[in-house]
Amino acid sequence: MIVHAAGDELLLIEQEHHAHLTGELAALLPRGRGDHAAFLAAARVHDNGWREADRAPTVDTDGWPHTFATVDDDTYEAVWRRGIARAAEVAPLVGLLVGLHGARFFGGRTSPGMCDLAEGERTRQDRVLADLGLGGSREDLPTEVTEPSQRIALLDALSLMLCGAIDRELTAHVGDQPITLTPTPDPGLLPTVSVRPWPFLDAAPTLGVTARRLPRTPFDSTDALRAAVADADRSTVPVTLL
């Protein structure tokens, strides 16, 4: 779950809705190296392992909804095991790209389960590379894998920033090309994000993300949060790229 404070409201954005926005952004890029269809599919489904967790949100010790960054290691492990398995069902290369994306975040989690997941992913990814005839290993990926993987990392960060989950400037690289993302906060809405150099085929598109609006107040319990989420209407909140 992404939780963004906007004025006197909290905007709750499910990870799958953030991933849908990532997929829309991916479709606006020119073709790059590697399998373009697999890249588009991986961008769209990269966070579908969060479905169950986001539909059963919990609160922290202060009563605020847990975000994707604050859930415990057991939840995080289950999320990525589900998500990678689901992506692999779409296609082996889609599963590989989603696994590589998840591995960017495994290092910060040190529970036995997370360490086991990270080790298992290294072994699985090497096997998938061999099965697909792509050679190399996770430590020496071919360009047709590294470029779409880097593009997913860029667009994931851009989508998260548009959803209010990242509030600082950052620079991502696709090959030798650095691309800088700069958010400008808006106290009443989601931030505006500048992307330089502009990587998309056309001018800034009109996009939005699905969110639930809740009062900006802590909740007495997880049950209270879930009741509020169940009662809250979903709406499409516009996002702005410059």
Compile the SSE list and pairings.
Layout (H helix, E strand, L loop, with lengths): L1 E5 L2 E5 L1 H12 L9 H10 L5 H4 L18 H18 L1 H15 L5 H20 L11 H20 L7 E5 L2 E8 L7 E5 L10 E9 L6 H10 L2 E8 L1
Parallel strand pairs: 5-7
Antiparallel strand pairs: 1-2, 2-6, 3-4, 4-5, 6-7
Helix pairs in contact: 1-2, 1-7, 2-5, 2-7, 4-5, 5-6, 5-7
Structure overview:
The chain is of the alpha+beta class and 242 residues long. It starts with a strand and ends with a strand. The radius of gyration is 18 Å and the shape is globular. It has one domain. It has a seven-stranded mixed sheet with strand order 1-2-6-7-5-4-3. It is built from eight helices and seven strands.
Overall pLDDT confidence: 95
- Which segments are poorly predicted (pLDDT under 50) over 5 or more consecutive residues? none
Number of structural domains: 1
Helical percentage: 40-55%
H and E string: EEHHHHHHHEEEEHE
Molecular shape: globular
By secondary-structure content and strand pairing, the structural class works out as alpha+beta
Main sheet: strands, sense, barrel: 7 strands, mixed
CA gyration radius, whole angstroms? 18 Å
Please count the helical segments: 8
Terminal Cα span: 25 Å
Strand content: 15-25%
Strand order of the largest sheet: 1-2-6-7-5-4-3
Number of DSSP E strands:
7
Keywords:
242 residues, alpha+beta, 7 strands, 45% helix, 8 helices, globular
